[in-house]
Amino acid sequence: MIVGGGAAGFFGAITCAEAMPEAEVTVLEKGPQFLSKVRISGGGRCNVTHACFDGREMTTRFPRGERALIAPFQRFQARDTVEWFESRGVKLKVESDGRMFPTTDKSQTIIDCLLKAAKAAGVKMRLNSGVERVARKESGEFELTLAARAGSGERIVCDRLLLATGGCRSAALGAMAVSLGHTLEPPVPSLFTFHIETPWLRELAGVSVESAEVSVPQAGLRERGPLLLTHWGLSGPVILRLSAWGARALHGLDYRFALHVKWLPQLDAEALAAELQSRRKKQSARLVVNTPIAPIGARLWEQLVLAARVPRQTRWAALSRTAQHQLVQQLMRTEFRVTGKSLNKDEFVTCGGVKLGEVNFKTMESRKCPGLYFAGELLDIDGITGGFNFQATWTTGWIAGKAMASGAETVP
Predict the structure, then answer these.
(1) Do 297 and 152 belong to one domain?
(2) Could you check whether the bond before residue 295 is cis, i.e. omega within 30 degrees of 0?
(3) How many domains are contained in the chain?
(4) Distance CA 84, CA 28 (A)
(5) Backbone angles phi and psi of 283, in degrees to 5
(6) Across 113-134, average pLDDT
(7) Same domain, 310 and 380
């Protein structure tokens, strides 16, 4: 039995059924549709994996789970994922930032592939079948009781059980694992954007910066990458990465902290001052607000100049040393007060879940309850944005499926 009809559950079910055709493999999904997170991922395109074909290097993209994933990624990594889907007629493409999507740019392509593979392997699939509780019988089998609305309290017995219920957004979602002897790392959000009330920032919604350095000195966090200005504050890959690495620290700050942005990370203070001095000589008659330093765009540059308290009508020739210093400081370290967070679009990645020391990553089997397996975000594993979380899902699902088929027992 597989509890959870998402990516991890389906990959585990398909792998198990293909490796052991005589087994009866059933996926139980509490909702009205399978693979709902796959459908919305990547803006509806499904960021299947990342073009990082060195398993050890890929583990460095995981704030939680890096060491645990070293061995699993030696067995099933991004290259294996690409081959798995291509062998079933789905070709993937690599984008400039390394993210990989189906060539159709439609998540439905991935959903159709998984459903077709599950059907071909003989996997039974049940919707609206939420599990209310699970118990271990004296015989060693598991007894699952479905929620009344799902099947009038129907009970199902199985000898091997895979829990792939997704991220533990609350302790309740990890209740089945806990009931079978496991403990959870407290769940907190990961991969989120920042709320910032600064009016001029919000007026620039839609403006992007190809590379900025952002930091939270209070938490010792620092990242560099593309930045996006939004109606509610700041987003983009660099913010999402920062939120992933700092998930617990930022939660501890109640998502209220000072954020510093360095708009031209390739320049230090001395080089930036020299650039401004050069403009005083070469563009002396031009207005400071009208002559941005690339790659900062015109609208953002104007607001940064005004935020540095340089009057709008100031020409480069009239820029005082004090004003130049203020502008350097603004470009080197604009400070914003973060007042909250938002999820990254409709996606939700959680920091927290089943403690990794309680799971044997050679088989994904529980060290506390033989015959019980885990895969996907129910584990205390999460990666940065870019297809890494899906790769961990495919890998843990594949290993769990193989082990369930072979009946592997827990290795100390």
Answers:
(1) no
(2) yes
(3) 2
(4) 23
(5) -130, 40
(6) 96
(7) no
